[in-house]
Amino acid sequence: xxxxxxxxxxxxxxxxxxxxxxxxxxxxxxxxxxxxxxxxxxxxxxxxxxxxxxxxxxxxxxxxxxxxxxxxxxxxxxxxxxxxxxxxxxxxxxxxxxxxxxxxxxxxxxxxxxxxxxxxxxxxxxxxxxxxxxxxxxxxxxxxxxxxxxxxxxxxxxxxxxxxxxxxxxxxxxxxxxxxxxxxxxxxxxxxxxxxxxxxxxxxxxxxxxxxxxxxxxxxxxxxxxxxxxxxxxxxxxxxxxxxxxxxxxxxxxxxxxxxxxxxxxxxxxxxxxxxxxxxxxxxxxxxxxxxxxxxxxxxxxxxxxxxxxxxxxxxxxxxxxxxxxxxxxxxxxxxxxxxxxxxxxxxxxxxxxxxxxxxxxxxxxxxxxxxxxxxxxxxx
Length: 381
Description:
By secondary structure, the protein is mainly α. The protein contains 13 helices and two strands, in the order H-H-H-H-H-H-H-H-H-H-H-E-E-H-H. The protein has a two-stranded antiparallel ribbon with strand order 1-2.
């Protein structure tokens, strides 16, 4: 009697993640062609980022020369702008170098999806990554950027053109973050499926342990591919938020002390900072959730072994698995842990620094030099 062929109900598993790298695929980045055709796009991105960064650097130095900023503050802000620029370029470059490695990750995910479906488990991936969420985030970022430059355009047309063109690296950075988050959402669905199977007496537990090992290995691969990119993105976001709040805070205090109605640019700065902070929170919370799912699988497996409920599992394999301590964790280049504790640390650091800046600015506003503050207001516009 011939064996009936198993038809796996493979969902549209990676459509949204793959769509986020459409630009790279069109540019010809793959294992056969390498990065050759993508290099002009990276050079374009790097050039525009550098032009934008050094344009802002020039503005800060000019304002310092005019006495608007203290020399030390101007030097620090200028350095931060250069750091943010280099981070933006670094994300684009790193994304190019490691793009070919993503094909291996997709292939392994497809194979694991087949293994999970063969065990009779349901793997719902159609809703794991909502494209509309990415679209809304990008739309919000574009809207804020355009409004800032339309409502308060730079005095020089060339500077405005450079700033608008330099928006491409920011889009690339955001899409890179969405790739990382999309893959983590996929892995999270896989862990949910095998965790359900672990609680079912009909499912072969040995296969689930093997899938868990493969998922843990896959997590390390994903972290290796995106680690430096995420680190640079976090540094970029932290720097931009600090620069936004440093330039915004004294004007914010001044305007609200006078009950001035025209506060549009302050609201834009606030929304931009909140948007960037949300990106950090999304990265870290999603990473922490996947790591917690992996730990819970190990814990459930260990408890089941102690209760002697797993009668259809190779005990030697189980002990070998537990002895390996397959810990899943995500880091930004081994420097920043992507977990809830780091979210608390970053928020605490920002609040401490901003409190210090607020106290300094309040002291400067005592006996207020309103002309200087109004000059800073015009500069932020």
